[in-house]
Amino acid sequence: MKTLRILLWGAVLIACGLFGLFGYQLTQPRDEFVQSALVGQEIPPFDLPPATEARPGLSSADLADGSPKLLNVFASWCVPCAAEAPQLEALERSGAQIVAVAIRDRPEDVDRFLELYGNPFTRIGKDDISEVQLAIGSSGVPETFVIAGDGTITYQHIGDIRPEHVPQLLEELRKAGA
Amino acid sequence: MRLFWTALLITLCAMPVAAQDTLPPAPYAYQQLEDPAQEESARVLMETLRCLKCQSQSIADSDAPMAGDMRHQVRSRIQAGESPDQVRDWLVERYGDYVSYDPKVSATTWPLFAVPVILLLFGGLMFWRRVGRKGDKV
Amino acid sequence: MIAEIGLAALWLSAALAVLQLLGGFAGARAADGIAPLSALVRPAATLQAFLCTVAFFSLVYLFAVTDLSVRLVAINSHSMKPMIFKLSGTWGNHEGSMLLWVTVMAMAGGLIAMIERRLAERTMMATLAAQAFVALGFYAFLILSSNPFERLTEVPLEGNGLNPLLQDIGLAFHPPTLYIGYVGLSVAFSFAVGALLTRAVTPDFARVMRPWVLAAWIFLTIGITAGSYWAYYELGWGGWWFWDPVENASLMPWLAATALLHSASVLAARDALRTWTIMLGVIAFSMSMLGTFLVRSGILTSVHAFAVDPERGSFILALLILYIGGALVIFALRANTIAEGERFSLVSREGALVVNNIALSAILGIVLLGTLYPLLTEAFDVRVSVGPPYFNPVGAIFFLPMIVILMVGPLLRWRKDQFRRIAKPVALVGTIGTAVLIGVAMITDIGILPLLGLALAAGLAIASFAPMYKRALRRTPLAVWGMCVAHFGVAVALFGMAADSAFQQERLVAASVGDVVEVGPWAGRLDSVNALAGQNWTAMQANMMLSYEGGAEHQARPQSRNFWTPEMETSEVALLTRWNGQLYVAVGNQGVDGRWQLRLWWKPFVTFIWYGGLLIAFGGALALVGRVIGDLRRRRYGTDADDHDEIPIDPEAQPAS
User: Fold this and answer.
1) Do A134 and B65 touch (CB under 8 A)?
2) Is 0.80 topped by the overall pTM?
3) Which of C138, C375, C508, C574 is most buried (CB neighbours < 10 A)?
4) Which residue ranges make up each domain of chain C?
5) Do A89 and A120 fall into the same domain?
């Protein structure tokens, strides 16, 4: 009987632990984002053709040319990407160099998007089968990475950039050596 | 046909219809490898990799474009000679353990493997005690 | 008007539940179970059942007429939906399914109040009080935070529509049967708590509880089987179980209920396993409640999750703490009042059933661990995924030995037996199993798990009818037939699972009209592709003619369907079913080059999985009918035959169960 008692109170304890875990998790905001595991590591080699005639293509060598940059992963069919356009403009005005990768986009659609929302990018790579997106551990659009001068990924921002994120990104860029 | 083109595949994805691309799927998203053995090992691997944009599905069970792109990566790498483990490692390197439905023994997952062992021992112990105590003296 | 009637009925039910609780409590305290208030308990329970039914059918009516002034209807329904989906859409959402939950609970309570006469009055009062106590929490949850009858101040012109994946006949079957099973287990919970509180854990108590558990279990088996088949043909990829958190949430109560069923039988027949029976009675419904929490709180990601609302989640968590925590504490406090049961030796039917209990509980523990593990690691900011590659092999560690015991157990005698006595049938079964194992391993090249599955299924198929050997078949009790059929069903399902996993063939092809397609023994062609429209959808349909090994041609017409309100694309697969498997055909998009994406699978014996599930439920039904008839006969003729059992026809033969 004694073992039974111990077991049962053990069960009560486990139940309490579980309920505590549930209670805690209920208070946490729902985090649907998957972080890239490559933050802190060098960007993998790639070489993308231009997504539009207006800008040259993008390669990993461009990202390791000594100056830190922002890498924006976007698409013309992505609604929040349009929403973050003003913030990207603000970042560019503050001196940030921004390059982009267009995911699964036709040149005419990219052109139309840039016409509507502005073009803060110095280079735009064409990624039709999400190859580079997968290679850098990005899992959706839009996402913005801070890349240091030597090509190391130092920071990842998932989702569209809101006005309150701009100072943070500038700070990360500064930390990366801007 | 126009109607069909405009109504795109989303099935179980979180993204609304408007936010979908218009480019065709990656070459190996819906195409099997020629070598049946390679295709089989690719298939087994794909069933254990998580679709990152879906609620909870493997890339083998999803019509999301990103799942298709991931399938393309898996198949092309297997065809190029990589082993399934290498392909899985490549993805885990980028997305962490979350992308794999097959938890490997590690500092964060050891309870998953320790508990079944504990249960086995515990079950055996329970049974032995029951029997030992109440043996054949009935 | 109708909505207000429904809401009023709910409030009244809740009030009656309070009455039931107070009366039951008073009755449980009285020595003979009779107190002034206790006379109201049974009527209160019965009336609750009636009122909840009124509330439920009020909601069904509102959906049927698409009353858009009711918020739930506006969000989840649409006037152009086919009637069957309007009706079944009632429970295709959080509030409606919660109302179904509460209704089933009230009906279960009402039924035991009306029908059950075998239990000592005191224990019955305690049971009904416990039932009312649990029901109250869920009434409160429904009325206060998930009111299905809420009205909108501005009536919209049209509803949002039902998720197209749910617009299927499966919605008419799967949730109701699942809930009758799931929530029907509340009766087992209440009985267990009632027996604990009144110190009445006895064989009589087990005899009372057993048919109720059996009934709930039968429905739960059907519900899970239906859900699996529905997911199989609806989602377009041919998977029938993914160890998704919501699927696991329905499996865990089933595992506990199966163990409970067997445990209660032992308690009834042999007065052993008292503690196990109580524990399982509490655990089964606890798993149901846990499942409801996981599915509705939003803390776990799943394709099935229907409400993602932390606030509601907190409410259910409070209920969990109260009920599960409370029951476990009562159990711990009253553990020493459960007398020791009869003894038995290792080699005996009780021994086999203890192993069965341990195995099922271990599998339950593993499924629980695997389902909750990602939640645990997230608390430490680490994200992992636990899926089939974990659950399948780890579950098999306990499942496969359990099947071995299943083959041997029913042949053993109660209390004490010798292995040597059953050596012959065991040797026969073992030989067959080993022969299948070696034979299949030599001819094919399949993994170890499916191989073991096939061999064990073959062995079990024979072994499940071994208890019939040398019996007078026509005088064998129905309950024994039930046991054999149910165990045979397990073998059939296991065979289906192993065969599909091992021998499935897949073919993805981009085909133009007129092209030939082949998969496994099937060959055919894509004849044409045409556009179609339905009540609330349009589709592109591929018309194909396929034949098996050059035989007669059959038509397969998979569709890629586009719904509006809400907009979604679904795949309607075409199934060609033979005795030895199913051809599963799906059509996808048209490529730039004009070719259509076709997906074909030849799945040998996959239908056995669900036939097996239905057989298991059927076996349970036979057992239930057998027991009920036996019980009625006993009551009418007042025979003394106690439950172990069916008077042995052959004095040599041991009682069956």
Assistant:
1) no
2) yes
3) C138
4) 1-167, 418-503+608-637, 505-605
5) yes
